[in-house]
Automatic annotation (TrEMBL):
Name of the protein in its database record: Helix-turn-helix domain-containing protein
Gene3D superfamilies cross-referenced by the UniProt entry: Winged helix-like DNA-binding domain superfamily/Winged helix DNA-binding domain (1.10.10.10)
One annotated GO molecular function: DNA binding
Annotated InterPro entries: DNA-bd_dom_put_sf, HTH_17, SinI_DNA-bd, WH-like_DNA-bd_sf
Organism listed in the record: Liquorilactobacillus mali
Ranges for domain Helix-turn-helix: 50-96
Length: 101
């Protein structure tokens, strides 16, 4: 760990003894976070950058009819080209994060 004080980088070294139960819980939580992150990366990379309605519904893990309802009632970002809807994956992710608030 580096601390920056007055333009100088200082390294802080310390040892912390944890009870085995806490150490195991911490290890399990880190493993869970890593697994979830890997799962998210695999999930995201299996979808194209621009998705059609069917792909976007699958990406969101909702039915096509639910997606169509959301499209009518929510501000889902899209691009309309010659009557074809396209949904940018990163914009859909942003939309979902905003809806969590």
């Amino acid at each position: 760990m580096y601390k920056k004080e007055g333009g100088i980088k200082m390294q802080a070294n310390f040892n912390l003894e944890l009870p085995i139960e806490i150490e195991n819980e911490l290890r399990n939580r880190i493993i869970e976070i890593v697994k979830n992150t890997i799962g998210t990366i695999k999930h995201d990379s299996s979808f194209p950058e621009y998705m059609d309605k069917k792909q976007c519904a699958e990406y969101l893990n909702i039915s096509r009819s639910t997606f169509d309802k959301w499209l009518k009632t929510q501000d889902i970002p899209f691009v309309l080209i010659n009557g074809s809807y396209r949904f940018k994956r990163s914009e859909i992710d942003k939309f979902m994060v905003e809806k969590q608030k």
